[in-house]
Each structure stands twice: as C-alpha cells, then as structure tokens.
Write a structure and sequence with these properties.
There is one protein chain. This protein has 149 residues and is an alpha/beta fold. Helix content is 42%, strand content 17%. It has one domain: Rossmann fold (3-Layer(aba) Sandwich), CATH 3.40.50.2300. The chain has helices spanning 15-27, 40-48, 50-56, 77-90, 107-114, 130-141; strands at residues 7-11, 33-37, 65-68, 97-102, 119-124. Strands 2-1-3-4-5 form a five-stranded parallel beta sheet, sandwiched between helices. The modification 4-aspartylphosphate is found at residue 69. Residues 7-140 form the Response regulatory domain. InterPro entries: CheY-like_superfamily (IPR011006), Sig_transdc_resp-reg_receiver (IPR001789), TCS_response_regulator (IPR052893).
C-alpha cells in the first residue's frame, strides 16, 4: 500500500520562489503532495472545484496547508484571504490553513493578514532554513498526520 502524503498548495507568481520553497521542503525531509498555482485566482478556482478535485485527487484534496504570497497579479494574497474566508464556510475546507510566504515585511499588511484565524504563520522569503520550515509545517499539519499514515 502506498503511503499518502499530506497535500499542500503553494500560491506564488514567482516560479523561482516556488522552486526554492519546494527545495526547502525536500531538504526538511517533509513528504508532501504539492500543488502549485501562480496567483490567487487560480488557487481559488482550484479550491472552488471541490467536488471534481476530490474525485481527481481522492487522497490529496483539499490541501491542509496553503503557502501564500502577498504580491501577485489578478488576486493578491490579501484578496485571496478575504475570498478564502467566505469559501471556507461554503465547502469542506475549514481544516485548511494558511501560512504566508512573502518578501513583504510591512506591519500594516501583517496586521490585516494575521487577523484571519486560519492564518497560522508568516514566513519571510529568504529568512529561514529547512529546519525552521519543518518545525512550522509540522506544528500546523501534525494534527492531520494520522489521516495520512
């Protein structure tokens, strides 16, 4: 029997930043199913297609953690959080949480972002190592791991 890997979603318009995060995840020896979307609009559409994605990815949808950038085209991170907040009430993604993954250190943005109870952390790009990433990810997804063993 194949071990199911906990699913996560990386939402970032910068391909290099997505690659760096995936490399850190690998370096941290985190075995995860990784979905990637290049902006908040794509990510919202991915989540909104709940029923079809549950069929398409029976063991890996919905993601339990979303790494979210702030500065993106179409729908930015803050706009995503507003829409995601509404979406969580309509479909079965209430256990899905967000960890910000941004180069922005603006306090006013952090205050808005952290006002959402489903945002469980804020990582500044380039300011952390694999061990810290693993610790933060495990703190968030640890309660879900029994579902994936």
């Amino acid at each position: 029997m194949t071990k199911i890997k906990p699913p996560i979603l990386i939402v970032d318009d910068n391909e290099v930043d997505r690659y760096i995060l995936k490399r850190l995840i690998k370096e941290a020896k985190l075995e995860l199913t990784i979905y990637e979307k290049k902006d908040g609009q794509e990510a919202l559409e991915f989540l909104e297609n709940y029923e079809s994605n549950r069929i398409k990815y029976p063991d890996g949808f919905p993601p339990i953690l979303i790494f979210l950038d702030i500065n993106m085209p179409k729908v930015n991170g803050i706009q995503f959080l507003e829409e995601f907040s509404k979406l969580r009430k309509m479909i079965e993604i209430s256990s899905c949480v967000v960890m910000m993954f941004s180069s922005s250190e603006r306090e006013e943005e952090k205050k808005i972002i952290m006002s959402h109870d489903f945002v469980k952390g804020y990582l500044v790009k380039g300011s952390f190592q694999a061990a810290e990433l693993k610790e933060k990810v495990m703190a968030v997804i640890g309660q879900h791991l029994d579902k994936y063993s």
